[in-house]
Structure formats: C-alpha cells, structure tokens
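ENTRY TYPE: protein
CONTENTS: sequence, structure tokens:
***
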Amino acid sequence: MTNKMYFGALFCTGLLSLAGCSSSSFSDSVAPSSSEKPSHAASVITMNDSYWQVESIQQGGTIDYSYVTMSIDDGQISGSTGCNRYTGAVTLDAVNEGLSAFTVDNIALTRKMCAPALMKQEQKFVEALNETQLYSIDSGTWLVLLNGDKSETIKAISTSNSTKTTAPRASHSEKQPTAPVSQKQDVIDTKQTNNTKRYTCETPSANITPLEVSSLGPDTLGLSLNNSLHIVQLSRSASGAKYTNNKNVVFWNKGDDAILSINSGRYHCNLLK
C-alpha cells in the first residue's frame, strides 16, 4: 500500500513538471522579441500616381475655375498651370512624419497664349515649383510644398483620378444608359483644351465687338471680351445648359448663336466660320 501511494505521488509530480515545461515553451514561442516591432515602412504613403489640385500659390489663392493641377508619378511631374500644360522631373523622398525633400527640374511648357491674369499666375506657379525644396502631407489630404526657409510655396488638395477608379462591369443583359436625344442649349466640348471659338457680338450700345471662347478645363470656359477675361463654368438649369460665374456673367450658346450677359448688359453673338 505504501509503495502504491509512493508511485502515485511520483507520477503526479511528473505530469505537473511536463505541463510546466510545455506551457513555458509555448509562451516563449509566441511572445514577440523586443526587436520584432511593426515596421513603419508598411504605413508609408506613396506619392507615386498621385493627383493634386492647387488651391494656393505663394500663400495666395488661384483664379476661379483656372484648375492648376499636379500629377506625380515615376519621377515625373505634370499638369496644368491654368493656361498651358507643363512637365518636369521631380525628385522626392518617401513621406514621413516630418518634412521630406522635394525638388523639380527641367520644367517645360506648351506655348499657348492666355489672358494676362492667367499668364501671370502661370509664371508665379512655375517660380513656386522651382523654389520648392521640401514637402509634407497634412491629414492625408493636403500636399504642402515649402522652400528652403520652410515658407509655403504651394498647397494642393488630393483629387481622385477617374481613369483609376474601377467599377463593376455591366453584364450583356443590362441596358447601357443612352445620351439625351436633344437639349435646348449646346454644350461646348471642353475636352479639347486647345478649342477656341470666335464670335462677333452686338454690344448693348449697338456696336460690334469680337468675343473669344476658349476651353480652360472640364466644363470651364474663358470668355475674352474687350481685353477682359471672364471665367465661367457649366451649370444646368430649366432652360438647358449655360455657363456662369459668381460675378453676374452668363453665357448661352445654341448652334451658331450665343448670348452673353454681363451684369445688366446683353451681347448677341454669331459664330465666325
């Protein structure tokens, strides 16, 4: 009886010892070492294939609807100055929690003539790019460029690129949307950035004056009249399509005819062919 009790106690002690060893080995294999910390590289935001709309140049605003843009990808920067297209080489470090290096070289532009205000803004924008040495990302939304003195040169907001957006494909059985059969007003095709139409207009005082209508971007027109530029944007109304801004300028067109209203003055225009 004594021997049975002795071997029973010895057997239980052995089981407890094995359980202790097994528990210790399991915890050692799961617990991370102090050197195995999450890598910050996994959370780094990339600037490749990024698109930005400029909201501020040298801490001043941009001309309404002029659409100054920046596209950054694979060591290249390109976009619109609000007048011409531009391209250049960009060198930048990966985004981190502080400031990162950002330099632009070899900027080349197309040579389209624009209104003086737009050309002045273009020059200011190009100079700001050339001065830039640093950048940071604010709240994952804003790109802030700075010069060597850490003064802001350009501030831009992130924009989505429609060509990069994927959507479910429609099956063959689904009906595709069709364009409206007709509309009361004609929409000028602003996809052609070099598209310019010329009109002769009768002024409110019955004089004749020329009008140039140029595309400045998606759904945006520049109206050059009497050495003044009026920038208007496409809007929809009960009467059809029209172009307006917040300065009491309204432009309608239908076929070869157009009407331009500036404040209380009304111009009746005909397209030159």
